[in-house]
Amino acid sequence: MNYLLDTHTFIWSLFESDRLSEKSTNIILNSENNIYVSVITFWEISLKYNLGKLSLQNVTPEELPGYAESSGFNLLNLEAPLAASFYNLPKKSHKDPFDRLLIWQCIQDGITLITKDSQILKEYKQFHLKTVW
Question: How many domains does the chain have?
């Protein structure tokens, strides 16, 4: 199966794995699954770090792609056609642009999003988004 880590899930998997659900942990540790981290996540982390809305212990945002790869995660690029078609994602109450891009990436690529944010599924399930926690 293919799974994409939401930003908080990615950070927790690296630094606070006890915050992950048992189901999420099992999915991430199952070597038969393809676990992705989107470049969108790195952009979000970098921006929030710069604004002082996110602190990282003994690591900088630039180091995180290496951490992802050494953890066995695959990096998922944001391709031009996907970015250009983003306007097709229906507008819901969920306004976070990073989450919305991750949602669109999952819908378009048929990837299940690993997220604790249950509101995402409520709003986008009808558009074939799959989530787990």
Answer: 1
